[in-house]
# Entry
Amino acid sequence: MRKLLLASAATMLATAATAEEVKIGVLLGFTGPIESMAVPMGAGAELALKEVSDSGKLLGGDTVVPVRADSTCVDAAAATAAAERLITSDGVKGIVGAACSGVTGAVLANVAMPNGMVMISPSATSPSLSTAEDNGLFFRTAPSDARQGEVMADILIGNGIKSVALTYTNNDYGKGLADSFEQAFTAAGGEITISAAHEDDKGDYSAEVGALASAGGDLLVVAGYADRGGAGIVQASLDTGGFDTFHFPDGMVSDSLTAKFGDAIDGSTGQMPGNDTPGAEKYAELVNGAFDATAIFSGESYDAAALILLAMQAAGSADPSVYKDKVMDVANAPGEQIFPGELVKALDILAAGGDVDYVGATAVEFLPVGESAGSYRVVDVEDGKFVTLGYR
Amino acid sequence: MDILNAVVVLANFVLIPALSYGSQLALGALGVTLIYGILRFSNFAHGDTMAFGAMVTILFTWAFQNMGISIAPLPTALLALPFGIVVTAALLLATDRVVYRFYRQQKAKPIILVMVSLGVMFILNGIVRVIIGPGEQRFEDGARFIINARQFKEMTGLEEGLAFKASQGLTIVVTIIAVAALFWFLDRTKMGKSMRAYSDNEDLALLSGINPERVVRITWILAAILATTAGVLYGLDKSFKPFTYFQLLLPMFAAAIVGGLGNPLGAIVGGYIIAFSEVTLTYAWKKVATYFLPASLAPDSLMQLLSTDYKYAVSFTILVIVLIFKPYGLFRGKAV
# Structure
């Protein structure tokens, strides 16, 4: 064991001394429940690494080498071991990952913090990571699930809605979203008349709707799924006349909902993740069909990798303890806006001592806690169709 | 204080839903109680018999819809119902021939027959899923509402709307007809009388020259009629999904046991007791109370005794209470 450690230390020293090859860990769930998502995620991250490496402009000519490791999504021990290997044996200077919230928390606490390693996760969305202790080492390009609740409360208050009934699908997604919404909405002066769970896939929702309608409210917030219980709730509400306007979070904003109810739900509102910057388009151009650029969290992965390298350039060092303070600077204004495919331009600006505001594929804008604010498309239903009203 | 609005709210969210749900349960419980009375075992396959009957009816409905046959404003499913009944009856008779008769001739204990019916349940379960799939199927057509909430508000000028779905009206009417016909059959016809005799005392019935196999066959046919009708009505009113019929098994048995197993009248009363308990105990009474009470007494809380999550717990609780204090049921059926 000691020999192994010595050997790893020696390798690390050697790498640092030559300073020609910067290794970046790509720690994603290549096996396990999100393995199908991991393919375009890993490709996205490596695309950014290659773009920078090929330019030869990082830190005066360093090349970038990706090192893949498997975080499995569910097995914290395996993820921790994989991260340990990346740092001690491969000597990476930054980690893109991990993929799922649980293992990300474990890797952060057990590996990244003790080793002082910077981690940028493209897809961990649990609200608990916002408050996890991280010594300024952890960032994420995916918004916290809590964020949608705040945005939703904002939209409703903005529409002059003061009191709503709330029903959510009885799982982690529904419960988490309902909690964050309830918190944000009551903090903004709104009133939740009732917060009731519903089970998916039941035949009959009239009892649930009876309770919701009795509690009353300006409208009904349905944090469920458009193809399952959420639609049943809407159906029963319309049938009994309990509610005829609704607010739909992302799980409900789907064409199958409008196909089913048409103009009966006119006047309802909703929101789903989306942004109006040209970033996504430029990302698709850059990918050029090599993999699915619209796949979920693929753009976030590209952005996470790009941010690590740009922060290194801004700090003039590949040392995580130095460049970790620059991540926020390159992600947010002020500075020149940077889109996918423009990393070389950003490297030039940073080398000349200028400022960049990295926008990337997913309109990255970091909140003070070091996570993407997330941008949402606000919609309403007009003539039985979802119509985009704006972005926030 | 606004009694009229209070009554409308009550009718809209409690009376009408509970009445139609109670009717569907009553039809299901009648089938359970009939089998128990005559064949002397609890038929756990009854819920999936309902699913099977509803499925066959749906297939016929789709065929009719494709051929353009309709009886608007009534749903086409009503036209397909007799075909569904025939196929389901054939299935039940075949099951009896292949499975149950063997155990009957062995004079197997009721508990063995219960386990056998459990096996039949799993097989039916599988058949339904293989044929129509586990997902939700929609087959209702014709008029959706007898009166909808918006029309009612415009007509009466009241603040609260009242919705009465066509499927709810249909459920109640069909239940009345089916129950009346069943009681007429049991009380007035020779076959009905021999069935009751067989149920009361098997040996004496045999000595009087009643053909037991014929009684059994008629019982299965009646069970098929009741199960298919209940299944189709439930599917029309709510939605058809094989799994929800399996879930109905508990409230149906609760209804039959509360009323007294083997007692048809008890099954009907039990169905409505279960349905009204489920709905009223999980209903939030705030709105009704606000209309009903003077403004100074208006409640702040929801006045909801149980969260709707506990709907099925209500049937369980009633079942347990009845078994403890009145094991023969309200209308004195056979001991469980």
User: Anything to note?
Assistant: Chain A touches chain B through 25 residues (CB under 8 Å). The CA atoms of residues 164 and 192 of chain A lie 5 Å apart. The domain at 146-265 of chain A is CATH 3.40.50.2300 (Rossmann fold).
